[in-house]
Amino acid sequence: MVDDGSPDGFAPLRIKRVVRETSDAVSLVLDVPEHCSHRYRYQAGQFLTLRVSVGGQYLRRCYSMSSAPIEDELRITVKRDPGGVVSNWINDSATEGDELLAMPPEGRFVLRQEVSASAELIAFAGGSGITPIMSLVRTALAGTARPVRLFYANRGRDSVIFSEPLAALAEAHADRLVVSHHYDEDRGVVTAADVEAFIAGAGDADYYICGPAPFMATVEKALLTAGVAKERLHLERFTVAEAPPPAADAGEATEEVVIELDRRTTTQPYRDGDTLLQTARMAGLRAPSSCETGSCGTCMARVVDGSARMLNNDALEDDEVEEGWVLTCQALPTSRTVHVVYE
Ligand SMILES: Cc1cc2nc3c(=O)[nH]c(=O)nc-3n(C[C@H](O)[C@H](O)[C@H](O)COP(=O)(O)OP(=O)(O)OC[C@H]3O[C@@H](n4cnc5c(N)ncnc54)[C@H](O)[C@@H]3O)c2cc1C
Ligand code: FES
Known about the structure:
It is built from eight helices and 18 strands. By secondary structure, the protein is an alpha/beta fold. The chain has three domains: about 10-100, Elongation Factor Tu (Ef-tu), domain 3 (Beta Barrel); about 120-235, Rossmann fold; about 255-340, Beta-grasp domain (Ubiquitin-like (UB roll)). The radius of gyration is 21 Å and the shape is globular. The site of flavin-adenine dinucleotide has 23 residues, from β4, β5 and α1. It comes from Mycolicibacterium litorale. Its cofactor is FAD. Keywords: 2Fe-2S, FAD, Flavoprotein, Iron, Iron-sulfur, Metal-binding, Oxidoreductase. This is Ferredoxin.
């Protein structure tokens, strides 16, 4: 990780423009200084982690780029979360000229490279979930000949973000882009039948899903039931899933954690309740991390001895977990000693 003097690799990005999208969503165009522009290159679908100070407290939150890499600006779009601290602070207080601390882009919710030119991209967005999907759709339309279908669910017409850019894209690519809006106020929340109807006739396709947890669960289940292969589903979760209950065999108290990082081995006594990442920090190590919500995979490391359980995992595949990989920001040790290696 490049040390630019900011905490944990964060760099200050100036807010170049504030765009009010709807009454409860705002876009921020961020100015990336020339000297670190290489660090802020991103793929469509990725996100930035911001570190903001609200009420004297430092908080980290992830925001996906709503811009596409082909555009010459980097833009994030933030929707108010009722009762949420950072999203409301950004909507109410972010001002042109302010600086925000941001980590370089991360994330695996990206276009597959090895996909065939004719494979359809079918996207399901709910509410603020449109942000990474807008970037993916725009990129697929600009850089490939792939047909694209977008199902976009909102409570009502007032909450649709990017209504005009989407209409313009649909007009410009009428031969291969279908945009279907769903309004709960007209038809109730999205059901499995809505999903099935939308994918009718789909053949070789990749599916991208992002939105509120219940929306994502309905879409994912309906697609799997319709026979879509799990590996063709790409999900980006904005909210952390509920922590799983402690494993039945989680009885053994952990005494120490052995950490290998940058070819140094450190043994740190374990403090009850700490994650492996917190333990590494207690040992004075600069272990990699970004979102700290189990979404980006930056903090992944391999448990080579002992065991740990993750509170949340939205980044690792099942086979990676089987190989011993964990998200250290989410991993609690479950054996007397744990040996973890950052590779
Ligand atoms: C990979 C990723 C990409 C993302 N991209 C975007 C994006 O592009 N656009 C976007 O708008 N969001 C995005 N998010 C979500 C974003 O990171 C924030 O989670 C969101 O803005 C809410 O943050 P907040 O600080 O406003 O809310 P928080 O203060 O974290 O609160 C979240 C919710 O929890 C409730 N809550 C808080 N504390 C308590 C408590 N003690 N008891 C009960 N309830 C409580 C709040 O009422 C609120 O509803 C993304 C998230 C991830 C992980
Ligand atoms: S820091 Fe992002 S998953 Fe751990």
